Amino acid sequence: MANANSIPKPRYLSLDVLRGATVAFMIIVNTPGSWSYVYAPLKHAPWHGFTVTDLVFPTFLFVVGNAMSFGMGKLKEQGNSAFLKKVFSRTLKIFLIGLFLNMFPFVKWVDDVLVMKDFTEIRIWGVLQRIAVCYCIASLLVYYFRSKTILLISAAMLLGYWGVMSWFGDYTLEGNAATKLDNFLMNAKNLYKGYGIPFDPEGVLSTIPAVVNVILGYFAGLFIQKKGNNKSTAFNLIGTGVILLLAASAWNLVFPINKPIWTSSYVLYTVGWDLILLAALILIIEVWHIKKWTYFFEVFGKNPLFIYALSGIFVKLMHTIYIGGENIHKLIFDGFFMNLLNPLNASLGFAISYMLFLWLIGLYMDKKKIYVKV
């Protein structure tokens, strides 16, 4: 999967904290004790609309771009062939890890018998696959084009995506162009089924606007490097964030904010909030020097992809391994949390406890100076 090496010199603490907080919250929203008992803010909006949970994935993409701004200079110094080798290698590794997580644990229970999964029916896309593709496209754009050209391409991506979505379909689950393209390109059995029909929220067409989340994260990083971690930088980021929120709200009137099809208004809305969050962290950590609380999130931020992958592996094993006729997940959730708390709090308590369990693994890795790089 990857090699364990010494972590590179930190870029800036605010980025590490934002990345770590994103991973921690991602684990909480992905692993409730029961999907039947989830507080509303910890659910995705069913279709159009926005909840705080809808900010998690785009923030991860934003952070990828932000971190890219600190490493791109070094990559450019290594030359074209070394750059391409690095980018394509990292893209392939992340994509394959995502595919591995979709297939894991390779077996399933059918009529009380453990049988091998049909690998021809495995979902191809997913969270890590989208991260891989967005990282690859954004890296190539950043490497080969000037800043003004990249921003023009980004605008064309958002406007072009709006045009395609409005011209070739509507904004419903069944009628949108992203659904139509995925079903044309791929077998329905290889697409996500969580919406009741073959529809992949990380499919081909909706990946195009998601690239812009990475690119704008990259430019935010460049701005911070140029202006410094100071009050003026933070207020500029907040101002830009507010402008993007207002623009997204206006665009929402004709192209609704929607995570599953990753609308262009959703891109501007999430980047707007990410800029405000990052600015707040810069003020608290870099300007006011309130740092004692940050280490908890740094632990997640130092091994983000590894801990995220581990979170998926462990929870699937808990659902697969049975003891005394019950799987481990049910034994823990029903036998412990449901006996102590009401259903909603039991489900949240399980999610938080699971996140803390993974934090302890991350803490051990940090103390042992083990950092997994992809």
From TrEMBL:
The chain crosses the membrane at residues 12-35, 55-73, 94-110, 122-143, 150-168, 203-223, 235-254, 266-285, 305-324, 344-365. The keyword Coiled coil does not apply. Coiled coil: none annotated. Keywords: Membrane, Transmembrane, Transmembrane helix. PANTHER family: LD22376P (PTHR31061:SF24). This is Uncharacterized protein.
